[in-house]
UniProtKB/TrEMBL annotation:
It catalyses: (2S,6S)-2,6-diaminopimelate = meso-2,6-diaminopimelate. PANTHER family: DIAMINOPIMELATE EPIMERASE, DIAMINOPIMELATE EPIMERASE, CHLOROPLASTIC. The keyword Transferase does not apply. It comes from Aurantiacibacter spongiae. This is Diaminopimelate epimerase.
Length: 269
């Protein structure tokens, strides 16, 4: 079976997008996702995205990390799919329904409302998620937030100096996080500007993470570090994040299509 795909990215966080709205795909096993996402032997991507029909929304977006696991949300993929859909659209995900619309700066996404309860992150046991009494080798007192998927945010003097390649996997898999976690290290440059690097659950270091930018901005706003409208600078470029009224988060930034191709399902099944 020949399957067409679209290679897309948001600030360098890249995706293989499969459109199963008109022609259903066979069941996606973790091994198939890993093989397709493999940068040496497969097509290569941080996340595999599958678009399906949805009864209530414009479409459903399923998100698979490079490690094969299916997850709840992906901010950069939301902008990429928003670009494909072209007009104001709603996208159902495991993490909730989000809304996209074209904007002068690319695609604007209504990402929904953040959650802060320890059970909603989720954490293994109760604690204050605004200043968690935990630490890993100098990274201390993080803020936890769920923006459809789980994030922990460390505010540090210089995010570029943090050994995220070794600390990221350690924290991601700590038993405090029953569903593992995305790890953000952020430096507040001023009250409207944040510098951010992200170790993504199931994908490792990426050029950008949209939900990481949302979680970090909300964590900074919630703890009084910034105003309610900030620019978050990731290695791949900037995203604008607003959280005006303690309700829904708006993320605005670019998305791009890189190329289209097709593959033989049997080569990866
Ligand atoms: N790259 C994404 C996030 C993808 C999912 C994440 N790794 C998770 O496991 O929750 C983004 O742009 O938000």
């Amino acid at each position: 079976m020949r399957v067409p795909f679209i290679k897309m990215h948001g600030l360098g966080n890249d995706f293989v997008v499969l459109d199963a709205r008109e022609r259903a795909l066979p069941d996606l096993a973790g091994g198939t996702v890993r093989a397709l996402a493999d940068r040496r032997a497969g097509i290569g991507c941080d996340q595999l995205i599958v678009l399906e029909e949805d009864e209530a929304a414009t479409c459903r977006m399923r998100i698979f990390n490079q490690d094969g696991g299916e997850v709840e949300s992906c901010g950069n993929a939301a902008r990429a799919v928003g670009l494909l859909l072209g007009q104001p659209a709603t996208i159902a995900t495991k993490g909730g329904t989000i809304a996209t619309r074209p904007d002068d700066a690319g695609i604007a996404v209504d990402m929904g409302a953040p959650r802060f309860d320890w059970q909603a992150i989720p954490l293994a046991y109760a604690m204050d998620t605004a200043a968690m009494p935990v630490g890993w080798e100098g990274l201390e007192q993080p803020v936890a937030v769920n923006v459809g998927n789980p994030h922990i945010v460390f505010f540090v003097d210089d995010s570029d100096a943090v050994r995220l390649d070794t600390l990221g996997p350690l924290i991601e898999t700590d038993e405090l996080f029953p569903e593992r976690i995305n790890v953000n290290v952020a430096t507040v440059e001023d009250r409207a500007t944040i510098r951010l690097r992200v170790w993504e659950r199931g994908a490792g270091l990426t050029r950008a993470c949209g939900t990481g930018a949302c979680a970090t901005a909300v964590a900074a706003m919630r703890t009084g570090r910034t105003e309610r409208d900030v620019t978050v600078h990731l290695p791949g470029g900037p995203l604008r994040i607003a959280w005006a009224d303690d309700a829904r988060i708006t993320m605005t930034g670019p998305a791009a299509e890189a190329f289209r191709g097709s593959f033989d399902w049997g080569d990866y099944a």
